[in-house]
What we know:
about 90 residues, mainly beta, about 5% helix, flat
Amino acid sequence: MVNNCANSRCGKPLHYLREGRIFIFDVSAGPSEPGAKRLRHLEHYWLCGGCSETMTMEQDDRAVIRVIPKLARILEPGEVAPVAASMRAF
Length: 90
């Protein structure tokens, strides 16, 4: 169950779903044996209204889930985003 904002610098308690954004990530592990069924495991996260205005969440190739700043603008196709210190996970 989600109890607080996923931004560790905020931690605002979740009382109502009127504001903010819910994120759902599939953190399932692959089957350990050939032919075995993969059990699906979903984890839910919430960013409060204030945090969701400037941040989002992502899951990388290693299944690490993190809070990251939103880009200031949408990039054009083929355009590369500048790398900045502010892009580090919180």
